[in-house]
């Protein structure tokens, strides 16, 4: 009985080995960057067909991904502007923009002040020209670069670009707001005199 089982086991192993072959991975095929005698350009790797879109990279909302509508920069941010977006924009602005533009966006960053010399000064977002610029302009500059500033498209995702744009608008408002634009409560706080600190036990 034991010999019978051993014989059946050997037969099963033999059948399995006989069924195995390497035709699937030794067949004739081209590997990436191989030469090819079949295609006119001599390359086995083929270019993507026109209009090919990688999964997850569909850019159906042209305004959101370009900041342009009907050939013009958009005036409104195409996403909900809330405190979370502004905080995210501040974080991204501090990382990517402050080295040149400074924390206030006044063009007084460390690179501008102590770094390489530029043919033209770093942009100050508080000038009349830039305060009047549509938000699409700032999105376009972040995406494609401007002058000595290179493109940040590979570093900053589209939603984060709009977050930065929203924070830029907040910075512009903070540095150029008029007292008459404030509410009565805000004006009252602005006019409050700071209270002197009291030190118990006399002067130190």
Description of the molecule:
There is one protein chain. With 204 residues, the protein is mainly alpha-helical. It has a domain at 101-178. Helices cover 45% and strands 2% of the residues. It contains ten helices and two strands, in the order αααββααααααα. The chain has helices spanning 2-19, 23-26, 62-66, 83-96, 98-101, 110-114, 128-131, 135-144, 158-176, 184-191, and strands at 68-69, 72-73. It has a two-stranded antiparallel ribbon. α4 (83-96) packs across α9 (158-176) and α8 crosses α9 (158-176). The protein is elongated and about 105 Å long.
Classify the beta-strand content into a percent band. under 5%
Give the tally of β-strands: 2
The Cα radius of gyration reads 32 Å
SS element count, helices: 10
Oligomer: single chain
Mean pLDDT: 85
Low-confidence stretches: none
Helix % is: 40-55%
**Strand/helix succession:** HHHEEHHHHHHH
Which geometry do the CA atoms define? elongated
Helix/sheet category: mainly alpha
Q: What composes the largest sheet?
A: 2 strands, antiparallel
Distance between the termini: 103 Å
Strand order in space, largest sheet: 1-2
């Amino acid at each position: 009985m034991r010999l019978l089982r051993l014989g059946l086991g050997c037969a099963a192993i033999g059948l399995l080995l006989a069924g195995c072959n390497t035709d699937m991975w030794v067949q004739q095929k081209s590997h990436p960057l191989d030469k090819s005698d079949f295609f006119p350009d001599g390359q086995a790797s083929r270019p993507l067909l026109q209009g090919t879109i990688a999964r997850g990279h569909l850019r159906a909302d042209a305004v959101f991904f370009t900041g342009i509508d009907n050939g013009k920069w958009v005036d409104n941010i195409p996403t909900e502007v809330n405190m979370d977006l502004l905080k995210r924009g501040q974080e991204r602005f501090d990382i990517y923009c402050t080295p040149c533009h400074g924390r206030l966006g006044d063009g007084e960053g460390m690179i501008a002040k102590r770094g390489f010399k530029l043919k033209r000064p770093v942009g100050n977002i508080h000038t009349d020209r830039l305060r009047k610029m549509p938000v699409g302009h700032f999105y376009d500059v972040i995406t494609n670069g401007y002058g000595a500033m290179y493109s940040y498209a590979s570093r900053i995702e589209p939603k984060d670009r709009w977050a930065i744009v929203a924070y830029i608008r907040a910075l512009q408002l903070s540095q150029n707001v008029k007292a008459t634009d404030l509410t009565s409560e805000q004006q009252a706080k602005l006019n409050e005199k700071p209270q002197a600190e009291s030190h118990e036990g006399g002067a130190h």
